[in-house]
What we know:
By secondary structure, the chain is an alpha+beta fold. The protein has one domain: Beta-grasp domain (Ubiquitin-like (UB roll)), CATH 3.10.20.30. About 30% of the residues lie in helices and about 30% in strands. Strands 2-1-5-3-4 form a 5-stranded mixed beta sheet. The radius of gyration is 18 Å and the shape is elongated. The protein starts with 7 loop residues before the first strand and ends with a helix. The model has no long low-confidence stretch (mean pLDDT about 90).
Amino acid sequence: xxxxxxxxxxxxxxxxxxxxxxxxxxxxxxxxxxxxxxxxxxxxxxxxxxxxxxxxxxxxxxxxxxxxxxxxxxxxxxxxxxxxxxxxxxxxxxxxxxxxx
Length: 101
């Protein structure tokens, strides 16, 4: 904005475990990055095992780098590490179905 006042954006930060989810709505200044919104939200105090730098983050399901500037209405998601390689898990499921059929 030309008068030096930065626009305020409404965003959400989300993290989910199999048995518990967190979703925090907050207002941030225009130009705030995905990582900055995560840090400002306080969600990392609720979920100390969450590590967006290691495990990644996204906006509405699309992986983004930490320095991605947010837009009004964005939902920043903190990802968890994969427990199993998806390709290996798919092959195992297919093999089990084949053995039953």
